[in-house]
UniProtKB/TrEMBL annotation:
It comes from Streptococcus suis R61. The gene is khpA. PANTHER family: RNA-BINDING PROTEIN KHPA, UPF0109 PROTEIN SCO5592. This is RNA-binding protein KhpA. Pfam families: KH_KhpA-B (PF13083). Keywords: Cell shape, Cell wall biogenesis/degradation, Chaperone, Cytoplasm, RNA-binding. A probable RNA chaperone. Forms a complex with KhpB which binds to cellular RNA and controls its expression. Plays a role in peptidoglycan (PG) homeostasis and cell length regulation. Belongs to the KhpA RNA-binding protein family. CDD domains: KH-II_YlqC-like.
Length: 80
């Protein structure tokens, strides 16, 4: 696991009701390093928060971590 993935886990796990269902998939695109958070459907609202404030705060923290030459993108996916 890399530093950003560990940071995401440390922030997100305490906020969700089913922390064992959290999985993170890293997708490397030409411009971005995308971190796809697969969450249980019941936890998506908790991560987004009122008016998107929680996910906005999480993204601000994650985006502040210095990376090589690519931007970081955080994507929330629903577990199927």
């Amino acid at each position: 696991m890399d530093m950003i993935e560990n940071l995401i886990i440390a922030i997100v796990k305490p906020l969700i009701s089913q922390p064992d269902s959290l999985t993170i998939k890293i997708v490397d695109t030409p411009e971005f390093l995308e971190y796809h958070l697969d969450l249980d459907k019941s936890d998506i609202g908790r991560i987004i928060g009122k008016k998107g404030r929680t996910i906005s705060a999480i993204r601000t923290i994650v985006y502040s971590v210095p990376t090589s030459d690519k931007k970081v993108r955080l994507v929330i996916d629903e577990k199927e």
